[in-house]
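Page 37, top half.
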Amino acid sequence: MATTSVEQGARLRMTFTADRRQLVRAISSVGLPSQAEEHAYDPLAFVFSLPGDPTSNSSVQEQTHGTSSIIDPTSSTRLYAAMAQKDADDYAVTRVGSHLNAMSSLAAALDAVQGRKTIVYFSEGFDGRLLFGSVVRSKSKENSRSENDAMLSGQFWTFDVDRRWADGPLHRDLSGTVDLLRRSDCVVYAIDISGLKGEGDTSLGSAAGRGEESLFALAHGTGGEVLKNTNDLFEQLKRVSERTSLTYVLAFQAPRTGADGRFHSLKVRVKRKGMRVSARAGYYESKSFQSMTPLQRMLSAADVITRDKQEGTLPLELLALSFGGEKISRVPVLLQIHASAFASARPGQFPLELYVYITGEDGRVADFFTRVVSIDTVASGERLRRSGLVFYGTCRLLPGRYRVRAYARDGRDGRFGFRVSALEVPDTSSAGMRALPPLFVDAEDGIRLRDHPAGAPVAGEAEPFRVGDTAFVPRIVPTVVAGGTSRVCLMLYRKTAGKAISPFEIQAEVVDADGRARRPARLSLIGRSDPDAEGLVKLLLDFSATDLPTGDYSLRVIFRDARDERLQSESEARFHVS
């Protein structure tokens, strides 16, 4: 959902999303501005009196007269009115041109989004007289006759000669905007909102139908249409849905010429007569990231996050864990950029953009965070090339099932990485046992960055990645050297009636990649923490891989209550032996 204005241009208020609640909020935020600001926020309707117009709300072209001889064309009233109308029209043309430039920038940015884009354009349009001229647009024969008489008598100053015929520059601006929309595979369905006001109501815009020609030119040129003459928005939107309900997808192998942003035309024909084909006009070759506008960069990132498909070339890994809470759970989210991403990094600042969105099963955004991290590759280059970077942020969620989407992008060349992970946040209000996945502790010395969320810390919450006085960073992709050892942290939530936690037993085993071969895991206890206010106990152990050949494995851990073996919880984590 986007808005346009002459002063602020095209503004993206809501990107492509399945969260209808967010869309409703974004749409609801676009209300009628105050009377003092309506001119600035409604550039196409020209709602109030035109600047310098002595007749306030009426236009000279709209006045009706019996004959041209009734009003003296040389009278001062007619002369001043014509001068005011000319100034108003020049002002209007300038504003329409600015608006079309903003629409062109939005059209160019939408090319970054794959697939056909349907634009539902709510507007009254602008006065077609500015585009096609008063000769074609005027509905008053008396006005035309009056202007003809004035021209024959040489009194050209009594009306605007330039506005009598089509405006060439404005035509070119409109054609350029329509061409960009077609090339970006956008189809415009213009809904004429001039029909949404009551009869005689001039506070919402010009007379109904005055902007119909401009809306038709914008919509028809892209393969869409104008929906008008109704106050029922539901029926209009239903018609748009019906017209876009059937789509054929054709694929072809596009040749690569190496020209950055070059446009290639496409034509689609069908053999059946009487059929109308609406297809994209062509495609652009991929542009370099440096040549993209900020809006194009924003939409290209949103397109990847929405589609859940591309992984990108920036090596990114994601880990999200659910920690218990009295009413709402903490969810630490760890993002790891592998050392290979910094192997050939140029000296200087490395701007890293991070975006994390957590959505529920209904598509609603439950929580998110976005950050831009600037890294000095001169001061930290060696550590980055050896161990990479880990960013640690925190979200908060209610019990339920979620999808975590993480997107990271190099702000210099546009390389990106994208990962999706499923997450279940259990209800921890009842008594029981819940084991978190084993965490392999990272002993490497790469860059570790932790986000500091806004707001005061919640009372009683402990740092999740700390056992006693020992802090650690989990390995997102654990790797153990064959014949070596690795430190592992086990975490268990044990809800009991009292403060003391009942005794429990641990059974650990190593499972191969196929899930068949099992062998006892060699673990030795280093330390443990006392239960915190939420009943979380942490154990720090050494895990030995002396008898494991190279390959992929899982460490499976089973916790059992020492007094009641029926109470148990199981978790596991994958790791690789190199």
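Page 37, bottom half:
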Amino acid sequence: MTATDPAAGASAIPLASDFEAATREQWLALVDKAIKGADFEKKLVTRTADGIRVEPIYTRATANEGQQSALPGQAPFTRGASAAVEGLGWEIRQGIRATDPARANTEILTELNGGSNGVLLEIEAPGQAGCRITSAADMKTALSGMRLDLAPLELKAGLGAPEAARHLIAALPGLDIPSKSALLFLGLDPIGSLARWGTRPASLTQTLAETIAIVRVARAEAPAVRTVRVDSTIYHEAGANDALELAALGATLIAYLRMFEAAGAAPADALAQMSFAVSTDTDLFASVAKLRAARRLIWRIADASGAGDAARALHISARASLRVMAQRDSWTNMLRSTLSCAGAALGGADAITVLPFTAALGEADDFARRCARNIQIVLQEESWLGRVVDPMGGSWFIEALTDETAKAAWALMQEIEAKGGIIAALDQGFIQDRVAADAAARAKAIATGKQDLTGVSAFPLLGDDGVTFAPPAAVPPVRSEEMVRPLVPHRLAEPFEALRDASDAFVAKGNPAPTIFLASIGAVIDHTGRSTWVKNYLAAGGIASLTTDGYASADDAAKAFKASGVTTACICSSDALYAEHAEATAKALKAAGAKLVLMAGRPGEREAALKAAGVDQFLFVGADAVATLKGLQGKLGVTA
């Protein structure tokens, strides 16, 4: 930016020229003054789930200089494969899973007429629900009226992928479009299916040979088809952190390149056959960095194979994660889906699939599917997120996070390769153990309040949320013999949802709703912080709270408690009023008949005195909320 001095004519003077360049040391001195000598590392530095350091401020010096010089359209394609605005944007590829092929066709045409320009057709198979396709005729019914030369179709059939691919190829001649122009993604992923369900219908050698055979037939019928999918969403849904998800993506890519090489296909030709699927979730910046890092990882593997230029044409689809979706107050899932979609768009995904907000509950209706579709339409057509080349590029934070994520993923991928590759690592349980460790650490962070789940562990809604949905479709069993330990998907909200389910079942038997009286001492300004926290904390376990503006004395609180008819109370107020009234209030509540007296906050040095006065338990941030709430349910008589 420059300024022009009218008296000096048109000479331009940089505005920054009057200021000395600030140093990090000067900034740190000001920070130390602001945090009053507190530990900088503990106060201002955080770390991602992968242990990547997140600084409070980023400068050009902290960004990776090598990536700053890589422009969009240049290898390693971290910033995208194109430097031009023309043709940008992403494919809105929404999922269809209606059981009946005719109903699936209705939903497909509704999606396409409503603004989607691609379809992800989920097929019923062992271990997963979806459209029941048993023949080419069924496939033709499901796809009737769909212009496959304009709107791409992707199949998601899991263990049934080979059969689904054959049915689609056989159905092509009857779909009234030139099969040579069909834009298809067959979704063949035998390694992903092995990881997800722990089995495969045949031996590995037979499975890979079958995959190659289908590839050859498909390419002859539809030259534009991408036959094999490298799907890392399987690992994410089971609990993997970003680096492990990308490591699995890279290791699977290497395995498929070797498979094609054994069949006589060059790496460049093999890459042209592949598509990639990556998860995005509510951590927007991490999702952006993961997609950018994925492109760099794929390029590096391709380049090492002598096909670096082929990575320019790679296709990455982003799937909004089911892992972060909640059953309770599922309206909040619209926020989660929006963040997932925005992260995918800003990270440069070629296609995006957003889940209906009722996805964790059952089958979506037209309204839920419309909302999912419209999230994408608004972000693309109104917010124009797809009209900027690498919109997050140049952000020193994003560049640094991308670089560190790629390095962490590469290191883990090397560990997998050292085990003998992705299949051997699955066979040895190495990947399953790493996924389980990631999931356990995340579950602990959520249970102890380090990570909040809105509408679940934070600000939960008790009572009916008004959401309607159809029951989930039946899932055919997996009957094949288990070969490796499967990676079972799970949602982050499940432990809290189990508590809510237990409370609801208890009430459904004719019991009164579990309720705790809040003995809030003092004025609203004194107790509102802890009273609000306790109310939300208890609600996360399906326990209601009786609240008021507060009580002036212990006796007032005890009288109100006795009149309430409940048997448990929780004292809430400020530390100052605790020092003055907590012990007296506990004694008064016990005298009034309280069987259980709780107190919000850590007791500190007064723990012994408070317990002697009648406080039975303390509720505070940092304790395991799931275990604490389950224990409280038991004390309130809630049984499974």
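Margin note: Residues 67-76+88-435 form a domain with the TIM Barrel fold (CATH 3.20.20.240).
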